[in-house]
Please model this.
Amino acid sequence: MPLQRLLAPTAEPVSLVQAKTHLRVVDSAEDGLVVGLIAAARRMCEQRAQCSLVATRWKYVLDSFPGVGVTGVPWGSPFTLPPQAMQIPWGAVLQVVSITYLDMTGVRQTMPSTDYTVDYASEPVRITPLFGKIWPIPLPQIGAVEVTFDSGFMAPITAVDTSADTITVPRWKTMAAGDTVRVVKRDRAVLNDGNLPAPLAGYTDYYVQSVVSANVYKLASTSGGAAIDLTQTGGGDLFVGEIPQDAVSWMLMAMGTLYENRESVSVDARLVSVELPDDFMRGLLDSIRMTAY
Model:
């Protein structure tokens, strides 16, 4: 798959505390091993589900744009995959950051975002030129077209400012006033919602009240409502978005298998040969696994 990771996730979906609780590890002697198993389980989960769990930036490389001619879809067809449609072969896409191509002189150009449309509701995500537009003609050379995109179910909050009543989320999709957002603790099964920035509550959708600056937002309880007065910063690892619990359960089960067979597992290995109970574990990932049309 012609995907290149540009920015790795800055946090794991499962913390050391949660992993040790699941593995029944009571001391810190094997913390290094457990940290490595968390990363290994996350990579295995992402590869099998073909999606990112925590916000990650990717570059999708193609040799050319698909299809020819003016964009359009057959009249009366409720859902189609037009010949000019480009699909991103990775799930949980948050946003398309840019589409670039080599022009006929070999200079990389950025396609205006006003010339194409992205269907984030479909999976794989579909991209086509807007009606009346066509894809540019790239240099007939391998790797001429690049699509940069972000994917993931959640992203870390890097700052909570109680004086400005803002949260900072640098790795999440770009949001606008009125967008919904959910603030969560990473370890819902270990830490309670009391550690959320007060007065925010768990399992609750909030709204972007205003965009203060890039990646910095004020929240409201209702769409168009007043900004929430944040009185406490909260504690622990805070995120926006929410990872399906099935994926977390899959990771914990995988870590249990890897931990039991730790003598033959390399902590830094990208591929682990230990057998997992696939018949059951495949079902856990059905809710997030990317499927083709």
